């Protein structure tokens, strides 16, 4: 009898001690989550109607809205990085993104033209101030060095009718 009571108590405790999973919010399908700094995560999405990035707290409350600088003749490509005081040591949010322009060439004849997509990598702060604009920039990495300043590595690709020019650019963050 004592064993039955112990088993029944163990089953009751194990059934009631499972964690409950509850849906707390739903995110838009193009919303992404990013680590803003060492201990802080946010979600964000891009609004193509007004070229803004809306950054949300994890409880879905709006934290900041940043307007991206996208030239009239260019298209938004993607956001590569969002951080708070990693690129620029102030407390403003920095956003790294790419845009592209389509260039057409009728090198072969008047009927057939070739389209080239040329990219720009842009870094802005939350006020929209441009910190860096790299023609041909397509990818972005930050290397954290323990003995010196951090380093930004940007790969570039510039296309034209006859050539694809690839470069790797290295910037120091002070």
Strand order, sheet with most strands:
1-2-3-4
Give the CA-CA distance, first to last residue. 73 Å
Structural class: mainly beta
Main sheet specs: 4 strands, antiparallel
Q: What assembly state would you assign to the polypeptide chains in this entry?
A: single chain
What share of the residues lie within helices?
A: under 10%
User: Proportion of β residues?
Assistant: over 45%
Which residue ranges are poorly predicted, with pLDDT under 50 across at least 5 consecutive positions? none
Instruction: Report the C-alpha radius of gyration, rounded.
Output: 24 Å
Number of helices: 1
Q: What is the residue-averaged pLDDT?
A: 81
Series of secondary-structure elements, N-terminal to C-terminal: HEEEEEEEEEEE
The number of E-state strands comes to 11
The best one-word shape is elongated
Structure description:
The chain is mainly beta and 174 residues long. It contains one helix and eleven strands, in the order H-E-E-E-E-E-E-E-E-E-E-E. The mean pLDDT is 81.
List the helices and strands and how they pair.
Layout: H1 2-16, E1 32-37, E2 40-47, E3 52-56, E4 62-67, E5 75-84, E6 93-105, E7 114-125, E8 130-135, E9 137-143, E10 150-159, E11 164-173
Antiparallel strand pairs: 1-2, 2-3, 3-4, 5-6, 6-7, 7-8, 9-10, 10-11
Please supply descriptive tags for the structure shown above:
174 residues; 11 strands; four-stranded antiparallel sheet; mainly beta
Please provide a brief summary of the model:
The protein is mainly β.
């Amino acid at each position: 009898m004592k064993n039955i009571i112990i088993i029944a108590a163990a089953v009751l405790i194990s059934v009631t001690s499972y964690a409950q999973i509850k849906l707390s919010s739903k995110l838009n399908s193009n919303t992404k989550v990013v680590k803003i700094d060492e201990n802080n995560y946010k979600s964000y999405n891009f609004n193509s109607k007004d070229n803004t990035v809306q950054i949300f707290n994890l409880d879905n409350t709006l934290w900041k809205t940043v307007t991206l600088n996208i030239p009239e003749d260019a298209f938004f490509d993607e956001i590569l990085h969002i951080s708070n005081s990693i690129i620029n040591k102030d407390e403003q949010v920095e956003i790294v993104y790419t845009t592209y322009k389509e260039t057409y060439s009728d090198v072969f004849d008047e009927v057939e033209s070739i389209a080239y997509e040329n990219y720009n990598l842009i870094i802005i702060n939350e006020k929209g101030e441009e910190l860096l604009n790299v023609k041909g920039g397509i990818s972005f990495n930050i290397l954290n060095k323990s003995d010196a300043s951090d380093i930004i590595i940007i790969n570039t690709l510039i296309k034209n009718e006859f050539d694809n020019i690839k470069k790797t650019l290295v910037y120091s963050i002070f």
